[in-house]
Write a structure and sequence with these properties.
Chains A, B: Keywords: Aminotransferase, Pyridoxal phosphate, Transferase. The structure is a homodimer. Chain A is α/β, with parallel strands linked by helices. Chain A is 43% helix and 14% strand.
Chain lengths: 391, 391
């Protein structure tokens, strides 16, 4: 067979991050490389109780096939929680997905023909780059500034015929950057003006530990957009439960694509998550996570100020799980990585978050999955590596 | 936007079966339409115990992100069980998937470029038609005879440049047909000779209640093929856990596609299934299912012989969950469906299982999800509808 694999497989690569995680399995290495929530905060006991109740009360139906749209009770809970964030969402406009990664896959299926222009942030979320790449779009990137995308670049991309704009306006992965209120409104105004579909990915939005909560870009858009959410960061990622909000015409297409992808999301997982949400005070739980991540982030910034040279700049995230560092031009974080591993500390080089081979001098640091003692020791080690590297 | 949706969405339709299931929600209707396992046989208590043990022993890690490849212990169990069926499978060649539907999606991603020729059985499995359609291949169908595919048609399709052949050799959905030993060998010989990738879907293989177990086509293939399996029919479908076996070069590509699709299958669901498999005698459980389905199938065939006119022919499945009926040419099972619904009985018209708009006079009957009393009453009602319809 001359063409054994589909052409698209030539452009899609195994996640570099997941490869790095193998290198960092060494327990002596302090790793800021992963993107994991802190497992100490997982509600294990409450999930155990929820699961016992599910098996006792609706055992057989929790083990059966179910609808593609998802558990009606769970969708009602998701809708209800948006009320608290000032959004009126019809439960029938919510589709439960197998993690929010699946949303990216089904959105690509529904919207992207080969060569379609999809706008992403630079740096951009790796999972989206991977999911979209399968459908061979043309990536157009816009610089991410401290308060959101560069609007001139964004408008130029829209004028040039972009089909959709995928973004993470709250505490973006990888940069930790959040959009200002002004830029949220401006982005919505631009997507409306140019008829570009806005796909708002918001896995971290509830994890704000500094500043004021801001409305979603989705809430400012007049043309129907897509809003994505997830239980992974507020409850636990092991269930693989995310969701997407979309108006009916789009929703119906997403359901067809979801059905073709995996029929439906795990009935058992949805039933346990629903029961957990019904029986527990999720808002207090989220407050606990925010408090912990806030302290860990504060510690990381303080340690960076102490141990990194002044020539390295960092973002100051107001929420989420990541912080982004930029070294002077000409230095490669891939080379730094090798040095850091010798010093028993790890991070993710920034390069994979760029589709244009730039970003060589950047790196991503995760603060959610290390306590303050490990952050202090890890940043000290990394400061040593960086200082000797930049000398 | 002139092209709001991707071109592919024009050719993919919502599952007709899932639409039918809505019509049949009326509790007075006896439905042979669904494709559900019998929930009375779900191991609810054992799953409850397994889940308690998981939360008690590995709670936090069962709630965390995990590897794309899947739980190592679960993969070892899957490999071990193949031994009992005469196949030596390396656990590292097993990728856990979100149901076996996902295998079809990731196989399509890895292998199918637009316009590639994919061979399927006529009638064919609807989930595969849907999953593949997203990637816009050209479907080439081969007639399914009582003992497997028509070999002349298959060879002609292979000669004409087919890239892969997707088939369900054991108790096929929708027809209930199984391949004879001779046809298994012949299919393997043809795929080898023409270098066609064979994708063997085997969700029902362990549910044989008549005749002798036969080796998989996969075991006869010299060129590496793909073997798919699932816990949905032997344990419970609500977990959405399937798996695919493939040799390394293909495996690595499947992992990349899976990662882009949903990162990994639910950690919690995999942990509970693994514990369930470790602590219970699955072989006795499968024996229980086979006994029940065997009796239900026997009852259905007997009732059909009693109540259907002789002009309607049926398959005589030796396992699985479905039986296939063919009316004389010129009669439409879509029209019969409307009549049957008035008589409070439902089935699936055969048309959606054909990609060429044929099969108008065929219908699928499910026997796994109705007890013998309901089968007797339901087939009596359907016999009445058919008799008046064919008059």
């Amino acid at each position: 067979m001359p063409n054994k694999f589909a052409r698209r497989m030539g452009t899609v690569h195994r996640s570099f991050i997941r490869e790095i995680l193998k290198v960092t399995a060494d327990s002596e290495i302090i790793s800021f490389a992963g993107g994991l929530p802190n497992p100490e905060l997982f509600p294990v006991k409450a999930m155990d109780i929820a699961s016992r109740e599910v098996f006792a009360e609706i055992g057989a139906s929790a083990l059966q096939y179910s609808t593609t749209e998802g558990d009606a009770g769970l969708r009602a809970i998701i809708a209800k929680r948006y009320e608290g964030r000032g959004l009126t969402i019809d439960p029938d406009s919510i589709l439960v997905t197998t993690g929010s990664q699946q949303i990216l896959d089904i959105c690509a299926k529904v919207f992207l023909d080969k060569g379609d222009k999809v706008v992403i942030e630079r740096p951009g979320y790796l999972g989206a780059i991977q999911a979209f790449s399968i459908f061979e779009p043309e990536f157009v990137t816009v610089s991410l500034e401290d308060d959101g995308p560069n609007l001139e670049e964004l408008e130029a991309a829209f004028k040039d015929g972009a089909k959709c704009f995928y973004a993470v306006p709250n505490f973006q992965n990888p940069s930790g950057v959040s959009y200002s209120l002004e830029k949220r409104k401006a982005v919505a105004e631009l997507t409306d003006r140019y008829g570009v579909l806005f796909v708002e990915d918001d896995p971290y939005g509830e994890l704000r530990f500094l500043g004021e909560d801001l409305p979603s870009v989705y809430s400012f858009c007049k043309t129907p957009g897509i809003l994505c959410g997830s239980f992974s960061k507020i409850a636990a990622p092991g269930f693989r439960i995310g969701w997407v909000v979309a108006e009916k015409e789009i929703y119906d297409k997403l359901v067809i694509a979801k059905q073709a992808s995996d029929l439906h999301t795990s009935t058992v997982a949805q039933a346990i998550m629903r029961r957990y949400m019904e029986s527990n005070d999720i808002e207090s739980h989220v407050a606990l996570i925010k408090d912990r991540y806030g302290r860990q982030r504060e510690c990381m910034v303080e340690m960076i100020n102490t141990y990194f040279p002044d020539s390295v700049s960092i973002t100051k995230p107001e929420g989420g799980m990541f912080l982004w560092a930029t070294m002077p031009e000409g230095f490669s974080s891939m080379d730094l990585f090798d040095l850091a591993i010798k010093d028993k500390v790890a991070f993710v080089p920034g390069r994979p978050f760029y589709t244009d081979d730039s970003g060589e001098n950047t790196l991503r640091l995760n603060f959610s999955n290390s306590d303050e003692a490990r952050i202090e020791e890890g940043i000290k080690r990394l400061g040593k590596s960086i200082n000797s590297f930049l000398e």
